[in-house]
Amino acid sequence: MTSHTSLDLEARNILKQNDRGGYTIPTAGLYPYQWNWDSAFAAMGFAQFDIARAWQELETLFSGQWSDGMVPHILFHQPDPGYFPGPDVWGCEGPIPSSGISQPPVAATMARLILQKDPEAGRAAMGRLFPKMRAWHKWFMDWRLDRGAVCVTHPWESGRDNAPEWDGAMARIDPSDVGEYTRRDTSHVDGSMRPTKYDYDRYIWLVQLGRRLHWDQAAMLEENPFRVADPTMTFTLLRAHRDLMVMGELLGLDTKGMAQEIFLLEKGAQTLWNEELGSYDARDAKTGEWAGCISSASFLCWLAGLPSDRQAEHLERILDATNFGVPSHDPASDRFDPKRYWRGPTWAVVNMLIGLGLEDAGHPLGKRVRELTRELITRFGFAEYFDPMTGEAAGGKSFTWTAAVWLGWASPARGRT
Question: SUPFAM superfamilies attached here (predicted)?
Answer without folding.
Answer: Six-hairpin glycosidases
